[in-house]
Batch of 4 targets.
Target 1
Amino acid sequence: MSQNRRYTPKVDVDWWVIEVDTIKRFGLAIFILLLGVGAYFGVRFYLDYRARVAGSTPDATAGENEGPERTGYFIELEGDVKVKKKGSFEWVRADRKIGLNSGDLVKTGSRSSAHVLLFDGTEYTIKSESLTMIQSTVEDPKSNVRNIAVRVSSGAIDLSTAKKNRPESTTELSSPTASTQLGEMTQAGVSYNPESLETSIQIYRGEGEVVSGGETLRLSSLQAVTVTRSQQIGPKVQILPPPDLIDPANLKQLAVADPLKELVLLSWREVSGARYYHLLLSDTALFSEPAVDFKLSFRDTSVRVSGLAERTYFWKVAAIDQDGREGQFSRVRRFRVITANLQLKHFDVDPPTLSVDNPQLSGNIALVRGKTEPGVLLTLNGEQVSVDNDGGFFHPVILTHAGKNELVFVAQDTSGNESRLVKSVYAEFY
């Protein structure tokens, strides 16, 4: 009997029950551990994806052989401007804090425009109803050679290139039928019509080399060409230079009794060979929805405009030749209309408030944030900065050299009072 008790199944059952509980507890611990690890990497993946979509990963690489990718930013936005980040299927509303990298798309709607600054100092104005891709914004880490490429699939772009950091650096602006390599310190314009499939290229200043269908044509200042749908490069033509603006002087303040009834004189110098002049006047810097947009006879080098409310205005003029070709627009000037009696009644001698956060560096671009008073005219190193309705501002600025760079801010209110602030930024490289 003792032997039978020795092999009783009761002992086996007790031993088996204990082992199952142990396995269950051990399995539960492993499951919780795996769940935590999966959640950690899942959150990391999600945050990285959202960062890429939001454009907040300026150091993302563009390719193994291209070197690190650098970022561009919006300087100015008007109207309906949207961005689709590389790898995303979603168009999001553009914001000045969104970084632009290789593969990103920018789309402007009717009466909309965008001003973009890339890391090499090249500036692009994307005009209304345009579709543009940032194809390349990379710099080789060994040679520091920069390769910038932008493609317009429809609409028009004006651009201004900066001085090259290396002779081998390139700036390309292309369309479906042509590509243009642009020299340093060059101002140019490229437009593409998706219906006629024609590309128009204008070199306002500097030089560019147009390539299409195996042909190459070099353009210099004040020259233009059209590329046909069959990729044939047309004849080189001359375009007219910009008129010199006379009055009002830049940043002039016009104190008038009744702004809406006052006739404001705009004048410019005659351009030889002009048949018409094209005048644009707007209360926004990109002229996406101008208050005045009309053409004048060559005999008219001035015009009086009424109905201007109390605010800051921007204006520019281009000359049009005998064949209807429009030349380069003049540099934009701005003036401010204020009410004279209110200026006397409420005499203001206090300068506007102005504060600037410590700039953040993104490569050789300083990202500036700050606050001033709504309605002031704010400039950074002489260039206007957009101020939001609450007085806040965000602006990217290129650092021009390694070491110490000074950023000079000037805020001017409607009474002419100024506040000045200087920030120093140290760049480790350029």
Target 2
Amino acid sequence: MISMNIFKNFFNNIAKKENEDCIVYSPANGDILDLKNVSDEVFASETMGKGIAIIPKEGSVHAPFDGQVMTIFPTGHAIGVKNSMGVELLIHIGINSVELGGEGFKVLVKEGERINQGQKLIEFSISTLIENNLDPTIMIVVTNTDNFSNIKQIDNEQTEIGAELLFLRRRE
């Protein structure tokens, strides 16, 4: 009987460890760019956290996982989301896009709202960004990076909405 409990505990611990992994799915269609290569030093230096960037092919951002909207920037250019594993993501559309004061951005969700992976969160105008000499790159940043022992990005050059983008392992 004791040995059976040891096996149960062993397999329960393995299952728990496997559940500590999380996948972040792509919130946009576009070309993948290493976060360190974006033209905004705050993001490139990973001061805000580790992540990845996407040069968008169309103007929409979708939920990267099931979770909740934690914050929406007043100008609609950025959104913070969190999932049940505690992954906190900042999705920031464009570099210096705050300068537009919300022009070209339409937020489709509210703070506190539950979201489903793939759900459209924000629509935005790539042409408005470009016409104002702003880079439309989308930065996806794990703001609580320290809670994870490993954050690995996929090796693809392009991505599409719902494709695997980042793999995270919770720190033990």
Target 3
Amino acid sequence: MLPNFLFISILSSFILTHSHSQCIDYQKNLLLQLKNELIFNSPLSSKLSQWNQTDNCCKWQGVGCDVSGNVVTLQLNNESISGGVNDSSSLFKLEHLHKLNLAYNDFKRAPISKGIRSLTNLTHLNLSYAAFGGQVAAEILSLKRLGSLDISNDYRGNARYHTLLLNMNPLKLDHPNLEMLVGNLTGLPELYLDGVNVTSSHERKEWSRVISSFLPNITGLSLCRCSLFGPLFKSFWKLRSLSVLRLDLNDLSRVVPDMFASFDIRYSKFGKS
């Protein structure tokens, strides 16, 4: 899970909009189609329920546009969404999207849609704590511009989402596996996979070699409760750009904060509890 100060910082960047932009008609229609497709609890919605109250969709809650009026940001976290994002969703026709946030919804263990591959301009993708389940979609590998990927689903310590943890089919990295994921997204500076099941016993031991080999410039890494074990490979100490690191609730040997004393880390958490 992202530390609060970093999560707030990222969210604040999501809500920056060009208030003087005029949205493009076909993209406004796509947003309205998306609203009709989504299954959500209207009384609990602060964004979707307000859409279409003005002609300019760039002024709608959760929507951000560039100076040309293209929808580039969609922040639908905490909207009580429980379904409606399938492979043919209108969401995946918003080809200018740079930032997509569906965190803290309840997709009831549905897999991440393969339609995500259509959003090739994405730089930020946050699907955390949204109760997605099953295999992580291989189509994420095609999102070469990603600068931040968060598909965490570790609900421990969060009473509000405890029932989701009890009923969910956790996300897992099998095919693609961890090496395929980071090997295809080598420019990724931020990776958050809390609670994602790394299924291969080889990768659960070799994860630090995989991360350091493919993401040498990573700045934020969170792998809480990913069933990792074993010592860290020496190559991990080359990741000098790390400022956020969380490895707790794994079975890692000899991981103590003193090891990272020479790192410029602003937030870290280790240990088994």
Target 4
Amino acid sequence: MLDRNFGRRSWARAITAIGFACFCYSASAAAAPDSVDVILVQTVAPDPSATDAEESPDPVVALEKQCEAGNADECTRLAYRHHEGDGVPEDDARATPLFARACHLGDMTGCTMAGYAYSEGRGVERSHERAAAYYAFACHGEEATACSNLGLSYIGGDGVAKDPRRAAKLFRQACDLGSISGCANLGASYSLGKGVAPNQRRAARLFERACKADDQHACYNLGVLHRDGLGMPRNYKRALALFEQSCGVDDASACGNLAMLVNDGRGIRRDRQRALQLFDKACGLGEAESCFTLGRAYQTGKGIERDNARAIELLERALALDPETESAADARKALALARGEAA
């Protein structure tokens, strides 16, 4: 969340809480997808480029025959074909049962993908219980992504009872098995003190590791620690660079945090116009507090030409995006005032 007073409030207040990172599945690969300002990662689909399922040269018909014959790897390859629309129409309703079959035949990537499908409701009715069961089975088979995803299930109580300690152990296991999201999530656990004793230095090391592996959520989290001097000396310039990097790949929280630094001139020359542009970008990406901040700017005419209609639009968007945001009460008051002027 963003500082609702456009930089006048204590800088120690969080813009976006450090959270558990999430990779959102893309057709070609898993890619990084919300106190201390760190974010956790959501469920991740395994990267097909890291499995034998990548770019299978076999015709679909041949894959179907081999899958029917009980070849787990070929079932996974076939499932990816349907999931990605590779040589066949994209069809998760067809892909998910194939991932499940691959799982039952012993392919752990198939198990993780089946869990992901149930978690997201892709081709099947959403079921967090089934998702957690598939993740648990795959994690037992040392599929790193599944361990990280199962940890998130325990964080949110999705299909299992909430258990931050169990989650932290799973994130550690995932990280040890090579899951970058697992390392990022373990870092968030240490930063937030969820399931482990708070340790910002360990968090920083884990975020650094994941950031170097191009996990932009980890880069953002590392920026938060640099900005607030958590586990390291405060370094606004380093925070700026990390927020800029993550904002460049459309991370809404990073754009909002970057806007705050630019607006307040921390680590950089103060630039109100650029700050407003960044708030606008963050708002467009779905960051409610940025919408509120920008709406207030249009309402008051500070740094931008006053535009009451635009202010109303932005304040309404802020409340629609997150009616429980920290600034919700102020947003409602500002919106009532703006509507009164428009009447």
